[in-house]
Design a protein that fits this description.
Shape: globular
Structural class: alpha/beta
Helix content: 40-55%
Strand content: 5-15%
Number of helices: 21
Largest sheet: 5 strands, parallel
Oligomer: single chain
């Protein structure tokens, strides 16, 4: 319907241009939006305010001229001019509910488009250090990142999901020493326990598996424990592989899979870190000071220069990040999105500065970043902080075990990424209208239940995408509003992907479910009038299809019974 209004306004603008009221050598594109107040119609446009200066007349007068030249359309019930010159369109109920037929014709493809035209996009998310189970922050990153990938694919992009393993550096050293201590029979309370060691029960699991000589497989490698508590290199390799496997199992339980697992250690092994350093030196952006090598990041917007190589010869963490992102660029990804925790905020400027200093043709502001805020988990109104297995934090697996995958994914994706999130376990477990994911899934299941009743009590089998009945009989305000909400879905999918904000989809589905439940409770579908019954069931089927499509983009199931 929005396209219809846009086309009508386009015809009116063209008429005014041909008459000389508007200059013919200028382009005027009407921006049509949904109204928030239904007393102002279904759609509104401010083109008269935008083009008034070019027309040399007051906006309201131009609006009147535009309305006079609007072509006749059976889709429009009336048009009003409001305020200084807003044009409000009231659509007919029949034109609004026609969206149901379009939805059922397209089925799972409704809302999808080819805007991306197959452009390669890489999304890096989760990227946890292989030092322990995934915590709820990683879970939020997984829910947001995977939903964003699904949204981009729905918009026609060729998406690669990538997980970057920081399998080098001090944290891996701490992991190795912790597993070694456990293998030698020490516990976290012993005085000789590593000062920065990991204390969760999972360290015991790793040590026991290593001493038993077990073999673990993680993506690209199988590692067998040597059972030698003094072989630090063997312990390191085994522990990293063991925890990579554990994280992979957590992610599979969460319904998240990756196309590429990239190891930080490969950057050193393949000489890409050293090559990056040499390139930065050749470009004249490095200098020596106080025994360290610095990068002139201030020349690219940073507040101060950054140490690139420390006094002890080791590299700071952002240098391999620069090498890693150069590798992404060289792999042909013109669009890269990094979904990370807000604690990575300081790395954004540094990585971008380092990439510019490489003079590799990488555009400024590349890559894109989506940074999510922290998650607080509560039960009975009290914060939950500790998992026995992890030792000091709540894991993704804890949440999945408590409330299920669907609720975990929905709740972790349900708010703006830049806002802190409180995960209420009690709410997520509840089967009430207050639980948004239950409320949405219940709408889908309710429609399936009506269709089963239709078959059992009336002997009528209704096809999943069958359009039946006279849709012009759907004249109720609730039916028109429900149809208008369905019509918003394709634009929402575009906007959620473009703004990198999957939470808009959760809000949309919650509102759609609410409108359906209100309609369901007020007006029966299985009425004696067969034409009206079939028309209402067509609208039901359209609602079910959009709910299923939207939940799929969030990685959430659409149950037929609850």
């Amino acid at each position: 319907m929005k396209n219809t209004v846009t086309e009508l306004l386009g015809a009116a603008l063209a008429a005014l241009q041909s008459e000389g009221t508007l200059p013919a050598d200028q382009s005027f594109t009407p921006q049509v939006g949904n109204t928030k107040d239904k007393t102002h119609g279904d759609y509104a446009c401010n083109i008269a305010l935008v083009a008034a200066k070019a027309a040399g007349c007051p906006p309201r007068k131009l609006a009147e001229a535009l309305v006079e030249r609007l072509p006749e359309s059976p889709a429009v019930a009336k048009v009003e001019i409001a305020g200084p010159g807003f044009i409000n369109f009231f659509m007919t109920a029949e034109s609004a509910v026609s969206i149901a037929g379009d939805i059922l014709q397209k089925g799972a493809g409704f809302g999808r488009n080819n805007d991306g035209q197959g452009e390669k996009v890489q999304v890096e998310f989760v990227s946890a250090n292989p030092t322990g189970p995934l915590h709820v922050g990683h879970g939020r990153g997984a829910a947001i990142g995977d939903s964003l990938c699904r949204l981009l694919e729905a918009n026609g992009y060729d998406v690669t999901r990538e997980f970057y393993y920081n399998d080098a550096g001090a944290q891996i050293d701490n992991l190795t020493r912790s597993v070694q201590a456990r293998a030698k029979g020490l516990g976290p309370d012993d005085e000789s326990w590593p000062e920065d060691g990991y204390r969760g029960d999972y360290i015991t699991d790793v040590a026991e598996a290593y001493l038993k000589g077990e073999t673990v497989t993680a993506d690209d490698r199988g590692v067998t424990g040597k059972a030698d508590p003094d072989d630090m290199a063997a312990i390191r390799e085994f522990a990293v592989a063991y925890l990579r496997r554990e994280q992979d199992l957590d992610l599979k339980a969460f319904g998240v899979e990756f196309d590429v697992y990239f190891l930080e250690s490969s950057l050193y092994r393949d000489g890409k870190v050293e090559a990056t350093v040499e390139r930065l030196k050749e470009n004249g952006y490095t200098y020596e000071q106080d025994g360290a090598m610095w990068l002139r990041t201030t020349e690219f917007g940073d507040d101060k220069d950054r140490v690139m190589r420390k006094k002890d010869g080791g590299y700071t963490y952002f240098l391999p990040d620069v090498a890693y992102h150069l590798d992404k660029w060289q792999r042909g990804f013109t669009t890269v999105i990094n979904e990370q925790g807000a604690d990575h905020h300081s790395t954004v400027t540094r990585v971008r500065a380092g990439l510019q200093a490489l003079k590799a043709g990488i555009p400024q502001g590349w890559p894109d970043y989506v940074l999510h805020q922290m998650v607080m988990v509560t039960r009975s109104g009290q914060e939950v902080k500790i998992s026995k297995r992890a030792g000091s934090y709540v894991t993704v697996r804890d949440l999945i075990d408590e409330v299920g995958r669907d609720a975990t994914r929905f709740f972790l994706a349900a708010r703006r990424v830049d806002s802190q999130l409180t995960f209420d376990i009690d709410l997520a477990r509840s089967q009430t209208n207050e639980n948004p994911v239950y409320y949405i899934q219940y709408a889908h299941a309710r429609i399936c239940s009506v269709l089963r009743k239709l078959a059992e009590e009336h002997g009528v089998q209704r096809g999943r995408n069958e359009v039946a009945g006279n849709l012009s009989l759907l004249v109720l305000d609730e039916e028109k509003e429900l149809a208008n909400q369905l019509a918003k879905y394709p634009e929402l999918i575009r906007n959620a992907a473009a703004t990198r904000e999957p939470h808009h989809l959760t809000h949309y589905l919650r509102e759609l479910a609410g409108q359906f439940h209100t309609y369901y409770n007020a007006h029966k579908a299985l009425v004696d009038d067969v034409e009206l019954r079939d028309a209402r069931l067509t609208l039901y089927l359209a609602v079910r299809q959009v709910i299923a499509n939207g939940l799929d983009l969030l990685g959430i199931s659409s149950p037929e019974e609850m």
